[in-house]
Design brief:
By secondary structure, the protein is α+β, with helices and mostly antiparallel strands. It is built from five helices and eight strands, in the order αααβββββαβαββ. Strands 1, 2, 3, 4, 5, 6, 7 and 8 form an eight-stranded antiparallel β-sheet that branches.
Length: 217
């Protein structure tokens, strides 16, 4: 189709339904507000060779100022400095010396706050990803370490703005997901966080009840 051609109806519908990238201002709220609001939103990864994966966020955990489980609880360090900065940045860290965890920095500048993305489910499986793991594709992103492996997220991506230019960004819920939620086909469960020794009693984890990609129910 040339740039002078009238777009087909189906092309117009696709453009209308295309979710917009999430602006940092939208993330400039308490992680306790942002975490459940990120369910149904998309995490998108684009590589330098043009490959791209889009996955729907189905599980999140909130960490905020004064939270004993938050990496920024005691003081600002080189490792957690990005959490003290403005919203809309990535915070990636390593656990057990093996697995990476991806967080979205939230709240106002100088208020350490972030949302851990615990699980995602792929919107579609491109041919180059066929046979990626033996387990069912619904479980490929079922956990913070697994989703980072799937989307190739490591510490080289920490402290970067979550924008298409960085190769990692967030998009708002599309109209289909909003309609499912309105119809009661996508409900949310709120419960306690996982794998903590402090703050384990705080109900600051949310997940899409019906999703098969949730790390733990």
């Amino acid at each position: 189709m040339s740039h002078l051609s009238k777009p087909a109806l189906e092309d117009t519908i696709k453009l209308f339904n295309q979710p917009a990238p999430i602006d940092p201002a939208w993330l400039g709220r308490s992680s306790l507000e942002v975490a459940p609001d990120l369910l149904g939103c998309r995490l998108v990864r684009r590589w330098a060779d043009g490959r791209q994966l889009s996955a729907t966020i189905v599980e999140t955990e909130a960490y905020t100022e004064g939270d004993p489980a938050c990496h920024a609880y005691r003081r600002e360090t080189v490792r957690n400095r990005v959490m003290f900065g403005p919203p809309g940045y990535s915070y990636v860290y390593l656990i057990y010396g093996i697995y990476h965890c991806f967080n979205v920095v939230t709240d106002r500048d100088r208020i350490p706050s972030a949302v851990l993305i615990r699980a995602v489910e792929l919107d579609s499986i491109p041919p180059w990803l066929a046979g990626y793991r033996v387990e069912k594709p619904a479980r490929w992103g079922a956990g913070p370490g697994k989703l980072c492996l799937l989307l190739d997220i490591d510490r080289t991506l920490t402290d970067l703005p979550l924008t298409p230019a960085s190769g990692l960004w967030l998009e708002h819920r599309d109209i289909d997901w909003q309609q499912r939620a309105a119809a009661g086909e996508a409900t949310v469960t709120q419960t306690t966080r996982i794998g903590l020794t402090q703050g384990a009693d705080l109900p600051w984890r949310w997940y899409v009840t019906e999703s098969k990609a949730v790390s733990k129910r």
